[in-house]
Amino acid sequence: MPELPEVETTRRGIAPYLEGQAVQSLLVRESRLRWPIPAHLTSTLAGAQVLQVSRRGKFLLIQTDRGTALSHLGMSGSLRVLTRPEAPEKHDHFDLITDAGSIIRYRDPRRFGALLWAGEDHSTHPMIARMGPEPLSDDFDGQHLFAHSRGRKGAVKNFIMNGEIVVGVGNIYACESLFSAAIHPRRPAGRISLARYELLADEIKKVLAKAIEMGGTTLRDFVNGSGQAGYFKQSLNVYDREGQPCVGCAKPIRREVIGQRSTYFCAGCQR
DNA sequence: AGACAGACCTGTGAGC
DNA sequence: TGCTCACAGGTCTGTC
Fold first, then answer.
1. Strands in chain A per DSSP E
2. Mean pLDDT over the full length of chain A
3. Among A24, A181, A226, A228, which is disulfide-ready with A200 (CB 3.0 to 4.6 Å)?
4. Nearest nucleotide, C1' to the C-alpha of A155?
5. Would you please indicate which residues of A are annotated as catalytic (active-site) residues?
6. How far is the C-alpha of A257 from the C-alpha of A182, rounded, in Å?
7. What is residue A111's predicted lDDT score, i.e. its pLDDT?
8. Does the pTM exceed 0.85?
9. What pLDDT was estimated at residue A124?
C-alpha cells in the first residue's frame, strides 16, 4: 500500500494531533506485526511529550522527550485520528491516545507494518541507518543515480526501488516515473546515461510531489489521517492500466513481472 | 557485492 | 453459493 506520498499524507494528517501533546497511553491489541511491538513501549510512552512527527523513507518518526517511536505502514497499514471513541475493528492493532483525547488508530490487515522503538538517536537504528537519500531532497539527483548504478546489471526498476539507493520509491511510483522518463523498466541500471538519469531523478521528484499534493494514491484501502482516500489514482499513466491505451502513443499498456512485482509500462514509449 | 527467490499475513476478485 | 487461485501499496533474509 503506502509509498512515500501516502506516508507523508499520513504524517501531515496525524502531526497536528500529536505534536506538543502528551501521550496518555498506548493501547496494544495485537503486538504481532512484522516484528513484535516491544513490550516496554506501553510504559515507555505513557506520559511522554511528543516533540515532532517526521518521516524518513516510509517510516513515520514520532519523536518524544524520551526517544523516537518508528512506525511503518507495510502493505496495508493506515493511521488515522479519531476525535471521539469508536469501537475497534478486527485489524485495529494499536491506539496511541493523547492527554487531549485524540486517538491515533493503527489498522493493518496484513500485519506487514511495524511499531518500533529507536531510543534517543533514531538515525543509527538498523532500519534507518543504511537508507539512501530522500528523493525530494537536494542529496538526490541524476548524478547520484548514475554514480551508484555503474556496473549493475539488474533492472533499473529494481535499482530505483532499492532503499539503499533512494528511499520511498515503491512499485506504483517506480512504474510511473520510468514511464515519464521514457525508460524501459528492464533496462540494466548500469547501461543508462547520466542525461537519462537526470531526467529520471526529476520525474521521480515530480511524480512524488504531485502525489503528495493530491493526498496519495488509493488503490483499494489507503486512507489519510482523517480516514479519506487519496486522489492520485486518477493521474496514473501506467500503473494498474494493463491493456488500456498509452496516453502517449495509444499502444496497450503491458504488465510483466520484474523482481517478483507487477510492472506496467509502454513498450512503444519506454526504451 | 549484487542478484534473485522466498518469506511474512489477510483480503478480494475472478473463474469454475 | 462456495471453492481455488492469483494477486495486492514492502522489505528483510538466505542462497548462489
1. 23-28, 50-56, 59-64, 67-72, 78-82, 92-98, 103-107, 114-117, 254-258, 261-265
2. 95
3. A181
4. B3
5. 2-3, 58, 261
6. 19
7. 97
8. yes
9. 87
